[in-house]
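note to self — DONT lose this again. spent like an hour looking for the file last time. sequence + predicted structure for the chain T wanted, 365 res
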Amino acid sequence: MFTRASRRPAPTPTRTVAEAEADLRAVVAVVQALSSASDPETAIDAALEAVRSHFGWAYGSYWRIEGSGPSAALHFAQETGDAGEEFRRVTLAASFRQGVGLSGRAWASRDLVFVPDIGEVTDCVRAPAAQRAGVKSGICFPIFEDGQVVATMDFFTTSTLTPCAGRLGALRSVGVLVSQALERTREQHRQRRAAQDVEAVNTVLRQLAGAQDAGAAVRAALGVVRAEFDWDYGSFWALDTTGSSEPVLRFDQEVGSAGEEFRRVTASATFARGVGVAGRAWASRGLVFVEDLSQVTDCVRAPAAQRAGVRSGVCLPIVVDEQVVGTVDFFATRTLTMSDSRRSALTNTAFLLGRRWRASPRRSV
């Protein structure tokens, strides 16, 4: 059962032969496009463009659920078509809780939602900009993984739609096809990432074997991990015990870039045990992963990182003879997920660094 914004839905139009053929062509196009997709992003792009172009609609977008529990919300991920620059700006900044807006309603109902007049969706921040861009109708359906809604896909038109039940059924079929394709490509992606994680550890091992001292070992590990995982920035923080006060983590070296402001803040920062991402890794003596850096309120680097577009970070302690001697951290300008294989690869990298540090003729970096 699809939902509508009005209390008394108009009678569903009768499906014509031409519409049935158009729906079939669209579904076939989606199947063909998804069959060649090798990763989730490509599959999403293919489905968005196939549906939008075959039905002659103006715009389509994909929204992914980020976070969990009360903080879970749909965030913009990908788009196709054009509904004006203002609409795009609002879209990029928007997020939707379950039940809010067109996307939130599809998430809550676990079914396709159609609204003939986007102006009726009064709880959607995109609606006013959409109306000013000439958008009339909107359709949204959920995307599932393992039986749970993980995303939504929506489409907007510059003409008022009166879709028949057959077309809505075809769009539901598209949702099923996209869900299946994403599960397939994500599994393939997981397998590729697992192989990449193993190769990254092997590369670190080879680089450490040729390192002349602890400093060179750290530089090699930072460079390999950042490059292999396509992250933006990595840094090493050495434990400073020379001061008269309590020991602190002090910046030592870096690879990559997260902007000049972030570099300035990093160079002057220190972290006490338990403070910030680095301090938490020190205190816990284990990997600390932060999907959303905005949640790290005790880190002086976080505001500058956010302004530079950094989204996620991971930090690990370097342990030698049961003592933490420093931490390595990495940051990315996209939202990361931490698979078991990647967590294991990073933990093994930190372990190898600790072993190499112990064997180094010079402990200082």
